[in-house]
Amino acid sequence: MAAITAADVNKLRTMTGAGMMDCKKALTEANGDFEAARDILRKQGQKIADKRSENTTSEGLVLAAVSEDGTNGKLIALACETEPVAKVEDFKNLAQQILATAVKTNAASKEELLAAAQEDGRSLQEHITDLMGKIGEKLDVVAYENVTAERVASYIHSDNKKGVLVALKNVGGADVASVGRDVAMQIVAMKPVALDKDGVDAATIEREIEIGKDQARAEGKPEAMLEKIAQGKLNKFYKENTLLNQEFVKDNSVTISQLLDKTQKGLTISDFKRVAIVG
């Protein structure tokens, strides 16, 4: 049995970031073999990941990055189980590593992002699993968005758990930074379900019509009037829940569509992505 010194434990801790006792235990089990000890620690992280796979991740960080030319934005959400973990430096560093990897690789999907090789040749997912072993909680990239447009605006809410990317179209020569941020803030606050009524899925439309009919029926309206009343309520739903038709929260005399057009004739939004870490 190899003698495990404090220097050995400290060396493994520096290599892996794992706790002192975990490092000592791994080195003892590996009979002083550092590579074998690292594998033991990695397996420990995987065991925790498997054991806690069904746990709820209701805390974490949302981060965004927009390219220097303003035409691309990345948005990531790294979730954990408890608020204290979200404040740990290692967790915050991992979130930044995930965002940096997204920027570097321009990954098209979350799966591609998690598979991306890091400087040590291992995947991003392996790094996440390693930190699970160290922290003892489930960690999960719950969202990844990659948006390209004429101009992309971003906003991260003050709680760092909600974020938005907005794709602006027909920018022309206008400075749209301010209006882009305002619209992104609107999306965080008002949670639109779609860009306009054409983007609302059929199941939602059907549900809203049925709700409208049920409400009208409960109010004693004639059966022959229910469809017309439900359509009126559906139009109200579009106004309140589709971004371009929503009233601007800072000035309810204009809709988002009108706000954009006032900033630059023809300016509009081609897409938006909203992510949030929720319980």
From TrEMBL:
Coiled-coil ranges (or none): none
GO cellular component: cytoplasm
PROSITE patterns linked to this entry: EF_TS_1
One family name in Pfam for this protein: EF_TS
Keywords for this protein: Cytoplasm, Elongation factor, Protein biosynthesis
Subcellular location: Cytoplasm
InterPro entries in the cross-refs: EF-Ts_dimer_sf, Transl_elong_EFTs/EF1B, Transl_elong_EFTs/EF1B_dimer, Transl_elong_Ts_CS, UBA-like_sf
Keyword Cytoplasm attached: yes
GO molecular function, one term: translation elongation factor activity
Superkingdom of origin organism: Bacteria
Domain Translation elongation factor EFTs/EF1B dimerisation: 74-276
SUPFAM superfamilies: Elongation factor Ts (EF-Ts), dimerisation domain, UBA-like
Keyword Protein biosynthesis in record: yes
PANTHER family the UniProt entry points to: ELONGATION FACTOR TS, ELONGATION FACTOR TS, MITOCHONDRIAL
NCBIfam families tied to this protein: tsf
Family from the record: Belongs to the EF-Ts family.
Function field: Associates with the EF-Tu.GDP complex and induces the exchange of GDP to GTP. It remains bound to the aminoacyl-tRNA.EF-Tu.GTP complex up to the GTP hydrolysis stage on the ribosome.
Name of the protein: Elongation factor Ts
Lineage, broadest ranks: Bacteria, Pseudomonadati, Bacteroidota, Cytophagia, Cytophagales
